[in-house]
Structure formats: C-alpha cells, structure tokens
Amino acid sequence: MNDRYDVVIAGAGPAGAQCARDLAARGYDVVVLETEAEDEFPRQSNKSTAGTFHSMMGAFGIPDDVVMQYTDSVVLESPMEHYVRDQPGAVLEFADFKRYLVRDGRDDGAEYRFDARVTGPIMEGGEIAGVRYNGDEEVYGEIVVDATGPSAPLAKKLDVVDLRRENHAIGIEYEFEGIDIDRPGFADLRDAMMLRLDHEIAPGGYSWIFHTGGDTAKVGLCYIQNASHQQYGRTEFTIDDYLSHWLETDPRFQNAERLAGKQHRGSAHIQSPGKLHTDRFMAVGDTVPTLDPLWGEGINKCMQSGRMAAVTADSVLKHDSIEPTAENLAVYDTLWHRDVAPNAKTRLLMTQLLYLAPNERYDKLMRDLQRLDDDTLAEANKGNVRAIAKLLEFGDAPLLARLASQHIDLDLGSLL
C-alpha cells in the first residue's frame, strides 16, 4: 500500500465519502480510513433516519435504487394540531446509500482501507502531516480531513472543534410494518415525512414517522439532554422508555410490528461550529457539527460540507506553488457558512426557542403556520429575522427571556 497521498480522509460516512468522490473524480490520490470491517459496513454506523430532499439526490447523483420511498410532503404535528407542506423528498436505505458512495468513489480511483481505526494525527513542525491508525500504522497526506463524526480523534487533538456535552443529542429509531398510515383524526402520512413536537413523547426534542411504503415506516425520536429536557422530561425515563410510551399510546401503532434487525441508534451535536480548519486540515460532517438544527436533516448538509472541503483542497493542490496553510484553506470557512449552513446562528436560536415552548404553544404554532404565506415561511426557515418575528407573539416574551438567559450576548431586539 502507498503511504503518501494528496488527501487522507478519516471516516467513510456521507461527508467523508462525498469528499473522496469529488477528489477522486478530479484525479487526486485520496485514501479513506474507515473503522468498520468492509464485510459488515455500515453495521455500526447505520444510524441515520435517512430522510432527505430531492435537491440532495440531484446535486450528488444519487441513484433510485438506494431509495426506500419518495415522499411528497412534510407534516408537522403537535399534540392536537398538524400542518402539511408540499415538499418532495426521499427516505433512503441508509446502508445501501453509504455503500453506493464507497463503490462510486472507488470507481473513480479513491482507495479505501477498512478495519482502520484512526488514533491520532502525525505532527511535523507543528502541522499535521498524516494520520496514525490501528496503533502504529501511518499514512501521510498533503491535506487531512476528519469526517469521523462526534468522536473527532483528529479535530479534537488539533483543537479545531469543541463538541459540548450539553449540546449532545441522542436518538433511537425502529422500522415497523402494520402502521395505520392514514388514521382518522391524524394527518395523512402516505408519502410523507412527519415530525412531531410533543414533550410527552420527546421532551426537548422531536419524534418522527417517515413513510417507507405500504404500511411500513421508520419511527423514532431524539432529544438534547438540556434544560428543556429536564423541565419537561421524566427523571426515570430513558430514551427507550419514551419511544415505548409513544408506541403504546398512539393508535397508529396499535397493530404495528417491529421489523427484525431494524433498530438504529445515533447521536450528534446541535451547536454552532467554532473553527473548521487549521494548517493542512479540515473537519467536515458531524465532526464540525453540520446537522441542520431546525429540521434535523444531516445527509445533505454532510454531503455539502464534504464537497466544499474537496473544492477547497482542489483550489490549493492544483497549484504547485501554494501550500495548504490555514490561510489558504480559509475558503472552506467561507463556503461552509455561505453554502452549507447560512444563518447558522439564527437558525440554532430558533431551534432552542422552539424546544423551550410548552405543548400548548406547539398547537398554536401549527395554526400560525397555516395562516402565513409560503414566502414568509420559506424566509423564516432560512433564518430571516423579520419573517421569524411574524411567528412570535406577546406571550412568547418569557420564552425569549429564558433564551436570553442562556445566551448573555443575545440581543432580544433582533428577534422582536
């Protein structure tokens, strides 16, 4: 095996694999180090709900054969209300999707080393020069990319990321058959991805039903173990208890049966990124973190971050006279904040405010969403402060005050 490459990537998830695809297609020598064994990949890392939007499928050339179900709408539920928005999307078979990214990258020349657990960076002259894995094995690259997710063995040692425990979200999901997809009294979930705001089920978070065809669906929930979770949660409940409670009390699951072997657990951090890069190094995907805080969508964001890192690497490596210093890799920060997560801070504040609200306010929110026009909702989703203000009311002042107490630098006037 070679020990020197243009780019070394740690992690074969959507961000790392997409970065490898783009770089290999440009003719660069790239190697991906993946912890899991190839014959089981991705058993341990098969953790995503895999709900995404058509824009991702087209932008990254994802084939139909990794799609479980194309969807036509997004449904938002509260305890007593719901809101439906036309929004084409796709629910992927996540394992097939990840294997496709690996296979496609290999077809263009990317090298993959499985059973390769990254342990730390190789430093030369105060800069990263390569990666150490499996104890004493080494590989060197002009640029190194950390796409390992929250473990971040390289980014943490280089002080590029600061993933905080209070921003750590956990999730669990099962796949079921026998679900009453169009239950009277509830929204029609045929060909839909549904997100539910209900502290009884997911205190400080949300739950979901993603239709996967017929009477089958992915069902799960996630939450951040923060102040909102402590306020609304039950001290004796684990995340499994909350999911069991939902399954036992929601009539849509009365005749549902779990599909064997279809349980997924995952975690991510919901917070603003700090640094994204340093000399000869970039962090992508959930290492950053990149998850959309409002929708919980991660695949498209991870793929975009991998692509922006590839574009940045190309902008440096194609010039023999340019070194991949932090200054020359700074374009990655610009592209990330412009194209991957614009208005990231405002959208994160929206999410935190949302989780502070009680269930009664969620019911009112569903009614508010129905009265506002599509342009206003689209702008609010982008983080436009004036559009967000149209969703607020005088009674939200205590919630805003609580949010401000958590962010001492927050200007309440910016949200009012």
Order of helices and strands: EHEEHEEHEEEEHEEEEHHEEEHHHHHHH
CATH superfamily of the largest domain: FAD/NAD(P)-binding domain
Poorly predicted sequence stretches spanning 5 or more consecutive residues: 408-416
Count structural domains: 3
The first-to-last residue Cα distance is: 59 Å
Major β-sheet, in short?
Answer: 8 strands, mixed
The percent range for helix content is: 25-40%
Oligomerization = single chain
**CA-based shape:** globular
Structural classification: alpha/beta
Q: Mean pLDDT across all residues, rounded?
A: 91
CATH topology of the largest domain: FAD/NAD(P)-binding domain
Strand content: 25-35%
Rounded to the nearest angstrom, the radius of gyration is 22 Å
Specify the CATH architecture of the largest domain.
3-Layer(bba) Sandwich
Number of strands: 16
So what's the CATH class of the largest domain? Alpha Beta
Number of contiguous helices: 13
Labels describing this entry:
416 residues; alpha/beta; FAD/NAD(P)-binding domain; D-Amino Acid Oxidase, Chain A, domain 2; eight-stranded mixed sheet; 13 helices; globular; Dggglyphlred_Halo
Helix/strand layout:
Elements: E1 4-10, H1 14-25, E2 30-33, E3 51-53, H2 54-59, E4 67-77, E5 82-92, H3 94-107, E6 111-113, E7 118-124, E8 127-133, E9 137-146, H4 153-157, E10 168-177, E11 192-196, E12 205-213, E13 216-224, H5 227-232, H6 239-249, E14 257-269, E15 277-278, E16 281-283, H7 299-317, H8 331-340, H9 344-356, H10 359-371, H11 374-382, H12 385-389, H13 397-406
Parallel strand pairs: 1-2, 1-9, 2-6, 4-11, 9-16
Antiparallel strand pairs: 3-5, 4-5, 7-8, 8-9, 10-13, 10-14, 11-12, 12-13, 15-16
Helix pairs in contact: 1-3, 1-7, 7-8, 9-13
